Amino acid sequence: MSDPAKPARYDVVIVGAGFSGLYMLHKTRALGLTARVIEAGDGVGGTWHWNRYPGARVDIESQEYSYSFSPELDEEWVWSERYASQPELLAYLNHVADRFDLRRDIDLETTVTAAVYDEAARRWTVTTDRGETLSARFCVMATGCLSIPKDIDIPGADTFAGPTYHTGRWPKEGVDFTGQRVAVIGTGSSAIQSIPMIAEQAARLTVFQRTPNFSVPAHNRAPDPAVVEDWRANREAYRQEAKTSGFGIRYVNATEQLALETPPEERRKNYEERWSYGGFALIGAYADLLADKAANQTAAEFVSDKIRGIVKDPKIAEKLVPKTYPIATKRLCVDTGYYATFNRDNVTLVDLKEEPIETITPTGVKTAAGEYEVDAIVFAIGFDAMTGALNRIDIKGRGGVALKDKWAAGPRTYLGLMVAGFPNLFIVTGPGSPSVLANMAVAIEQHVDWIAGCIGYLSERQMGAIEATEAAENDWVAHVNEVGETTLFPLANSWYVGANVPGKPRVFMPYIGGLGVYREKCDEVAAKGYEGFRLESAAA
Ligand code: FAD
Ligand code: NAP
How many Å apart are CA 60 and CA 189, to the nearest integer? Predict the structure, then answer.
């Protein structure tokens, strides 16, 4: 452990060793700079280290949800499923850590508790829960958008006598539910992936649903050899297509065609084809699906009819059909056998809109209609998304201003990458960036490339600091809000707007202008000598 009075000195401290932190370290080294990565978990992989619940897998085709920076890595890694499972994704990220010799600069089981900017020295002092202090010119927060599980906000949770699990902190050794009565609380993506698996194992599964979600089938399988070969032959072009696309996903194949200008029969056929293809293809069917309520309704009706067709009991089917928000304005889920699970004799759906949870008791879950006795509870209740990890670190910028105070009414950034008043502090996939509305592997590479480019630019010119100006930040926040308002996203009570966490300000946090457009904007800013940023020479 380093002496707090004499902190270990680095050019860059990177917080987090997921997809973002690993690549950031690789890029920093390529600049010839020294770096240290601090990671709370006892392994690398971030999301794929923590989320080990049954059924966890990516919902973007594996070859697209991967790094593109190394053609050799791309060539040698072979995915075994169309949508890779959590163990395979974790193995991939561990392979990346080994292949690029990253581990020697990563500290595991260490949590960053504070990061304070020293204006005179133009350095960040980073403190960890091990009492260590590090000093760095640049601090990169690669802390993840979905890395902090939401606190359990249900009364009585601590009185339950049996085991409880959060999907985002699943035990490494796995959980055997054989013969047990299990409750799953929540019906977001994590629940929708795990429910079919738990139902197969448990004696009885009771699903507590507050808001139903739209889900489309993954049609997961071994990769089609023809697709693999086609991808290999055209990799560079396909990667480029994904990078410049709106969602960072080539196969979604978004069109300029409008749902409302398409005859109903033709529209249905298109939806049917995309449903058969699987995954997010459905939402790429028409350009107006996320902007026009009536257009959106055509897709929502299509999926609602599918739910009614799959679920045999019409009353249960009706409870599973979302009716209060446009499709995909809460993140669209991608499943394997989710709706059909409710045809099983051992599965019960409890609609919390009809019978809200009153309390968790030592023996089960008590709703307004009675108590459901269970042996184990799975909380699939989501995350304190986008700002959670950053607000848990005591980040102080110029004048000792705390980031969480600056963000008290909602996050403010320039390009999602930097914050006025916090020089030399970068955020990967921060609020105000497309991040969670895109294939995050592609979004992360874009961010890290930009940040590395910026650090390289400053280092070459021996500049002391870079900081977003208030004016540029204000304009960007206004733009993010303005673009958000042109879509249907703000209509849903989603984690995109912070509605899942009691007391969190309601702000639409990601940028929905499209990843390709965003990339162009970031590149333009850099090409103009970092327009909207204030640069300080080392001597100033
Ligand atoms: P993370 O992987 O979250 O890594 C951040 C790391 O920072 C974590 O390991 C965390 O422990 C660490 N950290 C945070 N705070 C501190 C601190 N103070 N000190 C030290 N360490 C800290 N995206 C997609 O595009 N497609 C998908 O299909 C998809 N599926 C997902 C499934 C699940 C279950 C979840 C939760 C998310 C999914 N995502 C998906 C989003 C996913 O988070 C990103 O794709 C990507 O893995 C994020 O990488 P990251 O490195 O930015 O963040
Ligand atoms: P989530 O989407 O936020 O879902 C949480 C669920 O828990 C919701 O159904 C929510 O209901 C419910 N809930 C929360 N608090 C509750 C309470 N107090 N009482 C009852 N119900 C409560 O979280 P998630 O499923 O973990 O997914 C988060 C994000 O991670 C996803 O949107 C996605 O981006 C990513 N993810 C991706 C995949 C994938 O397919 N690859 C898998 C998992 C996660 P309300 O809707 O009413 O709030």
Answer: 13
Which residue of 152, 153, 210 sits with most ligand 2 atoms within 8 Å of its CB, as the best mutation to test the pocket?
A: 210
pLDDT in tens, 44-74: 999 999 999 999 999 999 999 999 999 999 9
pTM: 0.97
| 370-373: strand order across its sheet | 357-360, 364-367, 370-373
47 lines ligand 1 (CB under 6 A): yes
C-beta contacts of 233-238 below 8 A and 24+ residues apart:
235/71, 235/74
Find the mean pLDDT for residues 346-371.
Answer: 98
C-alpha 76 to ligand 2 mean position (Å): 34
The model's pLDDT over 117-163, given as tens digits with 9 standing for 90+, comes to 999 999 999 999 999 999 999 999 999 999 999 999 999 999 999 99
pLDDT digits (tens, 9 = 90+) for 283-309: 999 999 999 999 999 999 999 999 999
Query: Distance between CA atoms of 355 and 377, rounded to whole angstroms?
Result: 18
pLDDT band for 6, please (50, 70, 90 cuts).
Answer: low
Q: Which residue has the tokens 């979905």?
A: 146
Pocket test of ligand 2: the residue of 381, 386, 506 to mutate, having most ligand atoms within 8 Å of its CB, is 381
Structure tokens at 78: 């072979």
Render the burial of 456-490: b for 16+ CB within 10 Å, e for the rest: bebbeeebbbbbbeeebbeebbeebeebbeebbbb
Angle at 177 between CA 175 and CA 178, to 5 degrees: 130
Say if residues 383 and 146 touch (Cβ distance below 8 Å): yes
